[in-house]
Design goal:
CATH architecture of one domain in chain A: Alpha-Beta Complex
Radius of gyration of chain B: 28 Å
Radius of gyration of chain A: 23 Å
CATH architecture of the largest domain in chain B: Orthogonal Bundle
CATH class of the largest domain in chain B: Mainly Alpha
Shape of chain B: globular
CATH superfamily of one domain in chain A: Oxidoreductase, molybdopterin-binding domain
CATH topology of the largest domain in chain B: Cytochrome Bc1 Complex, Chain D, domain 2
Largest interface: A-B, 106 and 91 residues
Strand content of chain A: 25-35%
Number of strands of chain A: 28
Number of helices of chain A: 5
Strand order of the largest sheet of chain A: 1-2-3-4-5
Structural class of chain A: mainly beta
Oligomer: heterodimer
Chain lengths: 410, 332
């Protein structure tokens, strides 16, 4: 018997059969409702349930129920630069989260290396000098689901971020009221969430004393003019403008001034990044120094177009989105319609504050056939631009590659 | 950061904005919440109920450990949406949970949990494949191929596997009847791409189109013929095999076959093949292939397990599974 050895399995079909483009339902995903969203993650489970089951929250992308991880559906970002409280992303570390907060008995402790340890009521805090500014709150692992090679952790698309107008008191004023002693090194924050098991590390984060006293770091009690949703940290949340959300401790009730560097788990073992430009290393590399994650680099996004948008052949297409500079304002947002060979400026919307989202808008012309391929790039006030190649690190932190969108021409 | 930014605005007109009452609603209770007011702002007490997840890890006994040890601290959702990870990556996660986050994972459960998670990758891949496969498989056409082969030069499958998929009784060829279409198709693709090596099957698979493979896989998946009578293996061998299949060997770090292939060898369709009633000769020879690194399909998990098996263990497992009959009908 002779068998002709001829490759008849079409390469194209084989690829179609092995590349996961979406619609992945695991056999375990017995969902009570069929309301789902495809996050467009490369390979693997990309479908998520949409849920409105969480208190004070409208429809959110369910990444995890307990402790809650809720992502903002991306179309929300097209509606304005301020993210509504009821669709602002949620991320908790530990499952024991107080579900009742009595504002009449709540106290904020300020203790440690201070002259007068304090226990402030919310009335005390409200009576202090008030500040307000817009700032982007972004999870360190926002967009982790797009990392390739993929990494473990919450598989967020781009919606683990939001921009709000925060109102509260300066941390500096609170610290001054307690009187920071000479020799203070850091200020550590503790919120009311508690681990399930006794031996697990309570969630604590700290800032260097000079950063904590810079007059910008805020303890916020209002978010977009309203008290914070419980899941976003009611009644008080640390606001560290320009820095990643891990420092924005929720349900803050304890501030400890340290006279030595913070050696706690959450500053020395978790939330570390490679000390390299854009926290970028080669997969598998180990020869780098790690430092606690800190400031945010610039990012920009399309909000009115996706890969599944269709545009008319030859049409003039309105193109818009949001951008932020990271730890400084947006200098410019540019669009490329030729795979990054040339860039042109877009129009920037109202400046609501250097730490917030800035809307950008422009137009593009759809080709006659195929796809419209667009890229957007933000450059911040320090002259720092988004990179054209995605960064990689094993934690999936700090993604800020230039975004691309390719609507189909019909 | 330097000084007070331009964006930092003292709210001189806060009395105005404070007129907007907070819209946040307590989820429970009807009494007006207590409140605190100062400087024109009112904060109201909040009482909410966070939803609980009813979701558990599916899989009965195989999921007992992961349900017991992992759901204490977190619900299942995020685990089930992880990307493909190797056993080593899952083991690293497991160790992080234990050492850094004090997860009360019973050391006895270590391998059971990581095996379960590695298997998850296979089941995810199978589900994804079924979601995106646009070809509507035609088992009738599959039967024609099985019987007559194709004009492209593939011989009929029935020559070795019989038209009913029970294969001729030598054990040189596996029983394929009732094996999932996904699994059969995946093996054929592996033969076609030489990921799985077999001179005969590779040539045949290369001569079939992707649609032919899907059709013929659908045909054999739909069959449930009787098992041919075979000589009984030595009872001692079967007992040894049963013990290893059910409990593994913790000293040698061999996890139980049942973790993935089920307590009665029924497999877990579509990703995990059944073993009950499979020819001992075939099972033994495939385990030897994995043990020596020649077979590279079906994930690293088989490579790891088979690498720890000795000849006697392989013979026992093969003997055990040949005489076993799945308790439940083997799913398609």
């Amino acid at each position: 018997m002779t068998i002709p050895v001829k490759l008849k399995l079409s390469r194209r079909n084989f690829l179609k059969a092995t590349i996961v483009t979406g619609g992945t339902l695991t056999p375990f995903s017995v969902w009570s409702e069929s309301n789902t969203v495809n996050l467009g993650l490369p390979i693997g489970p990309t479908q998520r349930e949409l849920t409105a089951a969480f208190p004070q929250k409208a429809e959110m992308i369910l990444q995890r129920t307990r402790p809650p991880l809720l992502e903002t559906p991306f179309e929300v970002f097209d509606r304005g630069v301020f993210t509504p409280n009821d669709q602002f992303f949620v991320r908790w570390h530990w499952a024991v989260i107080p579900q009742q907060i009595d504002v009449t008995t709540f106290r904020l402790a300020i203790r440690g290396h201070v002259n007068n340890e304090l226990s402030l009521s919310l009335a005390d805090v409200l009576a202090m000098p008030r500040v307000e500014f817009a700032a982007v709150n972004q999870c360190s692992g926002n967009s982790r689901g797009f990392f390739q090679p993929r990494v473990a952790g919450g598989q967020w698309a781009n919606g683990a971020m939001g921009n709000a107008r925060w109102t509260g008191v300066r941390l500096r004023d609170v610290l001054d009221r307690a009187g920071v002693k000479a020799g203070a090194v850091a200020v550590r924050f503790n919120g009311m969430e508690v681990p399930v098991t006794d031996g697990a590390p309570d969630f604590l984060k700290s800032l260097a004393i000079d950063h904590a006293r810079d007059g910008e770091v805020m303890l916020a009690y209002l978010m977009n003019g309203e008290q914070l949703p419980l899941l976003n940290g009611f009644p008080l949340r640390v606001i560290v403008p320009g820095w990643y959300s891990t420092y924005w401790v929720k349900m803050l009730n304890d501030i400890e001034v340290l006279d030595k560097p913070d050696d706690d788990f959450w500053m020395t073992k978790a939330y570390l990044i490679p000390d390299t430009p854009f926290a970028n290393v080669k997969p598998g590399a180990t020869d780098f120094k790690s430092v606690p994650i800190n400031r945010m680099p610039p990012r920009s996004f399309f909000t009115n177009l996706t890969d599944s948008t269709t545009v008319k052949s030859g049409a003039t297409v309105p193109v818009r989105g949001i951008a932020f500079g990271g730890d400084c304002g947006v200098s410019k947002v540019e669009l490329s319609a030729d795979e990054g060979k040339t860039w042109r400026n877009t129009n920037l919307g109202t400046d609501e504050g250097k730490y917030g989202f800035r809307q950008w808008s422009t137009q593009a012309t759809a080709p006659r056939l195929g796809r419209l391929s667009l890229q957007v790039r933000c450059t911040n006030a320090k002259g720092e631009s988004q990179p054209s190649e995605p960064n990689w690190n094993s934690s999936g932190f700090m993604r800020n590659v230039i975004e691309r969108v390719q609507p189909a021409v019909v | 950061m330097t000084g007070i930014g331009a964006a930092l605005i003292l709210l001189a007109t806060l009395a105005g904005s404070a007129a907007q009452a907070p819209s946040t609603q307590p989820a429970t209770g009807t009494a007006a919440p207590s409140s605190v007011s100062a400087g024109g702002i009112t904060l109201r007490s909040v009482s909410v109920v966070l939803p609980e997840s009813q979701r558990t890890f599916a899989g009965g006994g195989a999921a007992e450990a992961i349900n017991k040890d992992c759901l204490i601290c977190h619900s299942a959702g995020m685990v089930l949406t992880q990307p493909e990870m190797s056993i080593a990556q899952w083991k690293a996660e497991e160790e992080k949970m234990r050492s850094a986050y004090d997860a009360p994972i019973d050391p006895k459960d270590d391998d059971v949990i990581t095996d379960y998670l590695a298997k998850l990758r296979l089941t995810n891949a199978a589900a994804a494949y079924q979601q995106i496969s646009s070809h509507q498989a035609d088992p009738e056409h599959g039967k024609v191929i099985a019987e007559q082969g194709t004009v492209g030069g593939a011989p009929g499958c029935a020559g070795c596997h019989a038209l009913n998929g029970s294969s001729e009784g030598s054990g040189a060829f596996p029983r394929i009847a009732g094996q999932s279409a996904y699994y059969l198709g995946k093996q054929m693709q592996a033969f076609a791409s030489d990921l799985r090596n077999n001179a005969i099957m590779s040539a045949i698979a290369k001569a079939l189109s992707a649609n032919d493979i899907a059709d013929v896989a659908a045909y054999y998946a739909g069959l449930d013929p009787p098992f041919p009578p075979l000589p009984q293996p030595a009872p001692g061998l079967v007992l040894d095999g049963e013990r290893l299949a059910a409990a593994g060997d913790s000293n040698k770090g061999i996890s139980a076959c049942e973790n993935c292939h089920g307590p009665s060898g029924a497999g877990d369709s579509p990703a995990i093949p059944y073993l009950a009633g499979q020819y001992a000769h075939y099972v033994a020879s495939e385990l030897q292939m994995w043990r020596h690194g020649y077979r590279k399909t079906s994930s690293e998990i088989m490579l790891i397990i088979a690498g720890k098996l000795d000849d006697h263990e392989i013979e026992s497992l093969a003997a055990y599974y040949q005489q076993l009959r799945a308790a439940a009908p083997i799913s398609k």
